[in-house]
Amino acid sequence: ESYGQPNGAIACGVNNTHVRSANSSQVNVIDGRDALPGEVPEYAAVTMEACLFGKFHCLNVFCGGSIWNNRTIITAAHCVDIGSMDDLFVKTFTVCIGVREKEGSEDRKICSKTTNYVKHRFYNRLTNVNDIAIIIFNYELRVPYFTKDGDGSTNKFCPPNENFFIPTKNSCFVVGFGIYDRSTKKMAQKLQIAPMKCVSNEECKKTYSGVTNSQICAKGPSGQTACNGDSGGPLLCLDADGRAHLVGIVSYGTRNCPENRLSVFTRISSYIDFINKNCN
């Protein structure tokens, strides 16, 4: 059932959480917590199956993604890239939206397949610069769509418009199914959300000297970090009205999930032209 207003009238970046409380679910070890039903309706889970010549040495890669519009998902280039033999692989993407649980269907996610994607032509595997890719559908996904209890809800992020100031307070968040226990390296089975604080590139260069203006750095105020499995997922920031703007894509810096470590994100505002040129 659709909830409230007609789906076409649902504004970008609005969530479908009826009880907004940070204490309403269990806190995990990397200081994220389970996302509430409908809290991040703009998140997409992306699984790529890539097979050499379409039939050999098949492998699966799991990443996060972000709903840009009802035909377009944004993720990281390294999520769709196999390496030096990339051009020889045939890839199929399974994109799940309305997702809150990694397995099963109790969250009422909807999964769709496509083979269409565009990787930034100047993506650099060594430096992770231009780490952005777009997964494209030639039909409309069910976006936006709100349900009565929140589960299965979908929406698109608001873009980071020119006037959008990235807040330095704790109103930015990273979302994903990444490892949530540093000691056991366990992957979360429920979608995780953790607060992040953006830092200046000058500050970031003390840790990652190669950071460019097309990247943005952030860390959790209490040791939270983006982690393995969160690759390609969103760094979102809320505006004064509580609407979520897509600010970054999880790129690198998180291999061993070290506490208080900066994470590096692809800066969406640097790629608006690339997105608009290639999105459906």
Multimer state: single chain
CATH architecture of the largest domain: Beta Barrel
Approximately how much beta-strand content do the residues carry?
25-35%
Helix content: under 10%
Q: Can you tell me the CATH topology of the largest domain?
A: Thrombin, subunit H
Q: For the record, what is the CATH homologous superfamily label of the largest domain?
A: Trypsin-like serine proteases
Secondary-structure element order, N to C: EEEEEEEEEEEEHEEEEH
Spatial sequence of strands, sheet with the most strands: 6-5-2-3-4-8-7
Q: Unreliable segments (pLDDT under 50, ≥5 consecutive)?
A: 19-29
Tell me, what's the shape? globular
Number of strands: 16
| CATH C-level category of the largest domain | Mainly Beta
How far apart the termini lie comes to 27 Å
Helix-strand makeup class: mainly beta
Give the count of structural domains.
Answer: 2
Number of helices: 2
Summarize the biggest pleated sheet.
Answer: 7 strands, antiparallel
| Rounded Rg | 17 Å
- The average pLDDT is 86
List the helices and strands and how they pair.
Blueprint: E1 33-34, E2 43-52, E3 56-69, E4 72-75, E5 89-97, E6 110-114, E7 116-119, E8 133-136, E9 172-176, E10 179-181, E11 186-187, E12 192-199, H1 201-204, E13 215-219, E14 234-238, E15 244-252, E16 263-267, H2 272-278
Antiparallel strand pairs: 1-12, 2-3, 2-5, 3-4, 4-8, 5-6, 7-8, 9-12, 9-14, 10-11, 12-13, 13-16, 14-15, 15-16
